[in-house]
Amino acid sequence: MDASIRLTVDGTEHVLDVDTRTTLLDALRERLGVTSAKKGCDHGQCGSCTVLLDGRRHLTCLALAVAYDGSEVVTASGLADGEDLHPVQQAFLDHDGYQCGYCTPGQVCSVVGMLDEVKQGHASHVTEDLEAEPDLTDDEIRERLSGNLCRCGAYRGILAATRQAATS
Description:
Elements: E1 2-9, E2 12-19, H1 24-31, E3 50-53, E4 56-59, E5 72-74, H2 87-94, H3 104-119, H4 138-144, H5 155-167
Parallel strand pairs: 1-5
Antiparallel strand pairs: 1-2, 3-4, 3-5
Helix pairs in contact: 2-5
């Protein structure tokens, strides 16, 4: 069964007819040609497909496209302002927060979403004082980004990039 949905992806509105079983990831990649979100595990375990969905980080391989009719999707490709990179993108370049680059778009979107969560005062599982403003320690960063895996092991650069982006 097909359904018509409307998605705004990286600032461009799209109307699609999709099978109701189509994941948001497949709609982005196969129907719209948006390859920034990657298909890693296709089980919600690696984070390669992470995008910002209505401003919050989200795994697109687990999301049915029809459930997000009318939503705004921002991929790592949509974060830059023309030629000016988003501070998180720049930090990843500055600190070699990538190696093969496959996980990088998901990592970047996750860091952007995580930093917004911190600004809103959201605690993590390792936050000791739930009443205080979150302190973005290395342990906090690691916990908050634990859903994004890097097969190459570029975690040192990702951690440094996150620290830099948090202070910009």
